[in-house]
Automatic annotation (TrEMBL):
GO terms (BP aspect): DNA recombination; DNA repair; DNA replication; SOS response
Needed co-factor(s): Mg(2+); Zn(2+)
Keywords assigned by UniProt, alphabetized: ATP-binding, DNA damage, DNA recombination, DNA repair, DNA-binding, Helicase, Hydrolase, Isomerase, Metal-binding, Nucleotide-binding, Zinc
Name this polypeptide is given: DNA helicase RecQ
GO cellular component, one term: replisome
Taxonomic classification: Bacteria, Pseudomonadati, Pseudomonadota, Betaproteobacteria, Nitrosomonadales
Length: 520
């Protein structure tokens, strides 16, 4: 009976013929009073999973959402189809908020969206006691995870909803959940008894491509001009300055581009966002401040000029491409400096040891994706606990990189680090390996070392790839107190002793290195 009602609500109120994926199951679970944890990719249709149960049950569905802009859009869309919806957040004046609250107590809302910091106040919790509640929906539930980049401290307090209102069903939703985040959501929100609904995270229309960083802006321009001329896209950069520079540079080369980062004044930022959403073919250069809750279906590409912090970040950011289902690209340049920079950001931060360890593990997983010699989609989905077949729609599937036995090259590189006292960066070490007697090399007497010139069979570009892959694989370390000097790690020893083979991607290594077997 409930299922029938759910379907007729879907048809009549929302105007859709059928539920998608696991929506119907989720609706049944929550409408029947059970708890649910819903993991669905962006664009999968999470909203209906709580909107329809809220309409099916007596009382108001209270939706916790961290995104003011999204609340506003959702409420406007719901009102358009005749659902009685409202929101409470800092965008309202005190009078407006009071009016919404009064109406809430009268039972005037089917759905009430509330910012988390407001929800957990004693005053608001008292208000909840006096209202009739259909359910609690906790949107963007991964914000409860301390390890993610969207962490919101107030989310931790949301466990008290269960304690104060044990009879009200709860549904937590997220588009981001590796096993660890999922486990954290369950424990922190006390959702041990919730049924879990995990949808496939595959986005088959997105083509994944990760290219070696050489001249990144030029590579980006070539990519846009070749594949996405006149299309809307997002280019993610790490720093605000780089955002500004990238936007200006694209503009200079005839591509309509705008900057977006948290350091800009609110009006300009908002205006740029509006233009991006409204007009065709705008490229937004942005920090990760941009994107959460942006619903633009025809974003044709998401490019990364810098490495994200984790696979979740990468997946979420690239997920903003191709929400309309048409072909789209996730394109990233990646190089040794990215690895060093990200490691430094984690290791030199103020966070405690445990936090750093998790951060580094997440970075390592992402690096393994970058260095993958098998289907990137399979890797990505495996990370989210899904099995998959090679996709035929990523760079690795399309042109599989050959691998080569880089053990000897690795030994040479590690020896160069060791012989020079673990105090130098890649540029200097490569000069030593290639036998370039630069001033610096001579000044340190490194032209006298046995490793001087032993790596001449690989060119500089090839060596950069070797160093990058060694650092990415944890076979070489980075000393951040010594300005990013490359060092040996526990794992280096096995390679130096010849106990461990090192496989590398061919396309980024070089020339004749495979044949070289010169002793060190
Ligand atoms: P999410 O929150 O998971 O990113 P949304 O709830 O915003 O996704 O839904 C994404 C889009 O898909 C919206 O435009 C929504 O109206 C549409 N949608 C959701 N469920 C269905 C359905 N069963 N049939 C058709 N369209 C749907
Ligand atoms: Zn593939």
């Amino acid at each position: 009976m409930a299922a029938l009602n759910a379907l007729s609500l879907l048809n009549t109120v929302f105007g859709y013929p059928a539920f998608r994926g696991r929506q119907a199951e989720v609706v049944e679970q929550v409408a029947g009073g059970g708890d649910a944890l819903v993991l669905m990719p962006t664009g999968g249709g999470k909203s209906l999973c709580y909107q329809i149960p809220a309409l099916l049950r007596e009382g108001t569905g209270v939706v916790v959402s961290p995104l003011i802009a999204l609340m506003h859009d959702q409420v406007a869309a719901l009102r358009e189809v005749g659902v009685r919806a409202a929101y409470l957040n800092s965008a309202l004046s005190a009078q407006q908020a009071a009016a919404v609250e009064q109406a809430f107590l009268r039972g005037a809302w089917d759905l009430l969206y509330v910012a988390p910091e407001r929800l957990v106040t004693p005053r608001f919790l008292d208000l909840l006691e006096r209202a009739e509640l259909a359910l609690f929906a906790i949107d963007e539930a991964h914000c409860v995870s301390q390890w993610g980049h969207d962490f919101r401290p107030e989310y931790i307090q949301l466990s008290l909803l269960h304690q104060r209102f044990p009879k009200v069903p709860r549904i937590a939703l997220t588009a981001t959940a590796d096993a660890q985040t999922r486990a954290e959501i369950v424990t922190r929100l006390q959702l041990e008894d919730a049924r879990q609904f995990v949808s496939s995270f595959d986005r088959p229309n997105i083509r994944y491509q990760i290219v070696e960083k050489a001249d990144p802006r030029k590579q980006l321009l070539d990519f846009i001009q070749a594949e996405h001329s006149g299309a809307a896209g997002i280019v993610y950069c790490l720093s605000r300055r780089k955002v500004e520079e990238t936007a200006a540079w694209l503009e200079k080369h005839g591509i309509r581009a705008l900057p977006y980062h948290a350091g800009m004044d609110v009006q300009t930022r908002q205006r740029n966002q509006d233009i991006f959403l409204r007009e065709d073919g705008i490229v937004m250069a942005a920090t990760i401040a941009f994107g959460m809750g942006i619903d633009k279906p025809d974003v044709r590409f998401v490019a990364h000029l810098d490495l994200p912090r984790s696979i979740e970040g990468y997946y979420q950011e690239t997920g903003r491409a191709g929400r309309d289902g048409a072909p789209a690209d996730a394109w990233m340049t990646y190089g040794l400096t990215d690895v060093v920079q990200q490691r430094r950001m984690i290791e030199s931060g103020d966070a405690d040891l445990q936090f750093k360890r998790v951060g580094l593990a997440k970075l390592d997983a992402l690096l393994a994706l970058c260095e993958a010699t098998t289907c990137r989609r399979v890797r990505l989905l495996n990370y989210f606990g899904e099995d998959a077949e090679p996709c035929g729609n990523c760079d690795v599937c399309i042109s599989p990189p050959a691998t080569w036995d880089g053990t000897v090259a690795a030994q040479k590189a590690l020896s160069a680090v060791y012989r020079t006292g673990s105090r130098f960066g890649a540029v200097h070490l490569i000069d030593v390996l290639c036998g370039h007697a630069t001033d610096k090399v001579q000044q340190w007497g490194h032209d006298k070392l046995t490793v001087f010139g032993v790596g001449a069979e690989i060119d500089e570009k090839g060596w950069r790839a070797v160093f990058r892959q060694l650092v990415a694989q944890g076979l070489m370390g980075v000393d951040h107190d010594a300005f990013g000097a490359l060092t040996l790690t526990d794992k280096s020893r096995a390679v130096l002793k010849g106990e461990q083979q090192v496989w590398m991607r061919q396309e980024i290594a070089s020339k004749t290195s495979r044949k070289s077997r010169r002793p060190i």
